[in-house]
């Protein structure tokens, strides 16, 4: 699995549960169209977040980069209904930071070929 990470803060005045409801609707829409495999939403607890990364951490799991690219292309089309979901969530956040990681080792990593 590849994991697309989004770290962010909410804009002032945004209700946390409204954000989560909108995010779940958006990501559920993507999952129902096989554009992501799963997602997880977390929030820093007791102020113990990563410095500079925001209070919120959203993880989108995709099978591979082809699935992630298909999701990006769908969202980039700016067509409804996905645009409504995306704008509805994107308009609530500030200071986003993005990362892409993978399970390790994965199928691409062959043992015995290590370099030290």
CATH architecture: 2-Layer Sandwich
According to CATH, the fold-level topology is: Alpha-Beta Plaits
Distance between the termini: 26 Å
Radius of gyration: 16 Å
Regions with pLDDT < 50 over 5+ consecutive residues? Answer: none
Structural category: alpha+beta
In short, what is this structure?
The chain is of the alpha+beta class and 116 residues long.
Question: What's the structural blueprint in terms of helices and strands?
Answer:
Elements: E1 2-10, H1 16-32, E2 38-43, E3 56-62, H2 65-76, H3 82-90, E4 93-102
Antiparallel strand pairs: 1-3, 1-4, 2-3
Helix pairs in contact: 1-3
Key features of this structure:
single chain; alpha+beta; 3 helices; 33% helix; 116 residues
Please, could you describe this protein's structure?
The chain has 116 residues and is of the alpha+beta class. It has a single domain (2-102), classed as 2-Layer Sandwich (Alpha-Beta Plaits), CATH 3.30.70. The chain contains 3 helices and 4 strands; from the N terminus they run βαββααβ. It has helices spanning 16-32, 65-76, 82-90; strands spanning 2-10, 38-43, 56-62, 93-102. The chain has a 4-stranded antiparallel sheet. Helix 1 (16-32) packs antiparallel against helix 3. The longest helix has 17 residues, at 16-32. The mean pLDDT is 92.
